[in-house]
Amino acid sequence: MSHLDNIPSTPGKHKPDKAFRFHSSAASSSLSKLTLYSTLFLSILLIFLLLLSSPSSPPSPRRHLSTGSHHTPLSLSHKLIRKSARPRSTTGHTVLVTGAAGFVGTHVSLSLQRRGDGVLGLDNFNHYYDPTLKRARQKILEKAGVFIVEGDINDKGLLQQLFDAVLFTHVMHLAAQAGVRYAMQNPGSYVHSNIAGFVNLLEVSKSANPQPAIIWASSSSVYGLNSRVPFSEKDRTDQPASLYAATKKAGEEIAHTYNHIYGLSITGLRFFTVYGPWGRPDMAYFFFTKDIMKGKTITVYESPDKGSVARDFTYIDDIVKGCLGALDTAKKSTGSGGKKRGPAQLRIFNLGNTSPVPVSRLVSILEKILKVKAKKKVVPLPRNGDVEFTHANITLAMTELGYKPTTDLEAGLKKFVRWYLSFYSGSKKKSSW
């Protein structure tokens, strides 16, 4: 705001004191001129002093990319960004991973980096669940040489700067507002992240030259109220049971549009109940473990026919293999500078374990591993967006991606519990991977 805003637009009128009267017109005229000149002079002097004390132009705002709690100006971060994104092998890819400090994002980023790909992370470290866990994952990534830019996928200017700084061959888009039940509390966050944020990323990607191939996380929730099992990619997905599912379904349709109009190569991955070390605290296996250890009562849902709700639990290492398989088989985008040059690849795959397990069985396994008897309260499944069961048909992923899950639920939960006890015990080993 300019200091000149405090100065009146015109000086006030001079009113001589009634006690003094000048009968001479010359004297009166001289006094009036003197007053006018004095007022003008003082006004000009005041303006000059104000201008002298004000900066010649307001400082322009600077965007900051950051890692951790300190902020690094973009101009100083370019070296870190380019170093992180530089492949270490001649056949390596250059990958932007959104949601890099998330559960799946961290595991995928590490796997890409270890095999020689260049990886740059992007994450906004939101508070949907305890960001302390995300910061701990970030430290693991930094130790491995993966730089995370702290920012939001809805910040188009930031995305454009990243695409200007690095020629990405692929985008692994894992950033999203997760969780089925939270959508009833904060529906706007799902539209903001899962729809608007996805469109923003696609907009920047389609204008890039060359365009990157995009692999992104859809969800098994798109099958909604579908009763055919196992769920196949050919099944209808127009009956979502939650807003979260609806936003993921919308994402699949949006992906089709950008593929059709702009020639973006896009692969969608429908994840089925991913679990494992460094997982999300809002998932049942995670908070069941916490509550069982604390002696708290856990709530187990049952279906209307008194059967247990079942999930196709998929271990994180198997999901990572599917993600990398999708990236490695993705064909190049066909557009250039926002213009389509030819038909582009568009795919969708189920990534599950194809072995649904009742939640009651999940609890029994945790009791066995923890050596603690759970206090359970069995209640009917509420209308909160959850579905009774999920079951993946993974034939397509096996054929085209070489996807083959190898970890059963008990083996995977043992690895999770081992990590959980280490991480939350304050052990110095908790940062190991």
UniProtKB/TrEMBL annotation:
Keyword presence, Isomerase: yes
Record GO cellular component, one term: Golgi cisterna membrane
* Gene3D superfamilies tied to this protein: NAD(P)-binding Rossmann-like Domain (3.40.50.720), UDP-galactose 4-epimerase, domain 1 (3.90.25.10)
Does the UniProt entry include the keyword Ribonucleoprotein?
Answer: no
Which controlled-vocabulary keywords does the entry list? Carbohydrate metabolism, Golgi apparatus, Isomerase, Membrane, NAD, Transmembrane, Transmembrane helix
Localization annotation: Golgi apparatus, Golgi stack membrane
Q: Which family does it belong to?
A: Belongs to the NAD(P)-dependent epimerase/dehydratase family.
The record gives the membrane topology as: Multi-pass membrane protein
Q: Spell out the InterPro entries in the cross-references.
A: Epimerase_deHydtase, NAD(P)-bd_dom_sf
The record's top EC class is isomerase
The record lists the catalysed reaction(s) as: UDP-alpha-D-glucuronate = UDP-alpha-D-galacturonate
Disordered: annotated span: 59-90
NAD-dependent epimerase/dehydratase domain segment(s): 95-331
Query: What is the annotated quaternary arrangement, including any partners?
Result: Homodimer.
Report the source organism: Gossypium darwinii (Darwin's cotton)
Q: Any idea of its EC number?
A: 5.1.3.6
Q: Which PANTHER family match?
A: EPIMERASE-RELATED
Q: What is this protein called?
A: UDP-glucuronate 4-epimerase
Residue stretches spanning the membrane: 34-53
Show the GO MF annotations: UDP-glucuronate 4-epimerase activity
